[in-house]
UniProtKB/TrEMBL annotation:
UniProt-listed InterPro entries: DUF6483 (IPR045507), TPR-like_helical_dom_sf (IPR011990)
Protein name per the record: Tetratricopeptide repeat protein
Organism: Ktedonosporobacter rubrisoli
Amino acid sequence: MMNKDYILRLAEKFGRALAIILRLREYNQYEEALIYIDDLFVQSVGLTSRFINSLSEDMLLQTFSPLGILNVEACLWTATLLKAEGEIYQDQGNNDESYYRYIKSLYLFLAVLLQEQPDNVPEQTQQVTELLEKLGSYELSNTVKLKLFAYYEHLGQYAKAEDTLFELLESGPVTPTLLGKGQDFYARLLAKSESDLANGNLAKEEVREGQEQLQRFARQDE
């Protein structure tokens, strides 16, 4: 978990970089902004924008997780700069390029936030909210939805987590791994108090109903 002083130092660095990018965008200096971002990628994580954008979300996360330990600073720099790139392409009406950057940015932000207490990283939580709004008209991949499912539970937004779980089940494939995640999710919810569940917009009876629906998916898969 990151301490608050570290988060503040990172936020200051991000803020300075984003202020320059925003100024270039305001003057329609898109190429200059993209060159600046590429330079920041090389300085901060030692990789070019082209290489980063050639990797899948999972491969990116593995790249920033040597020995299985997430390099949080590299991950946050990359997520922040990918979002900034996406906004530049969106300014230019290139929605395909912006979409791929937003998806990767969202995935990396979620990976970091799943390791943090939400109150500890309000700025990054806000970035996720903004990215979900930008991607609202798109169908998210199952890879991203799995992270989102875990993220909503982490926030205590249990109804949203359940909705995301059933989106995954309905879009398929219904794998043993997904069913196991669902069963574990409902076991954790049933161990919570009524008030905790209510704060997450669920009631105990709704949890039991969801658990029964999950079992129906399991039986269909047999």
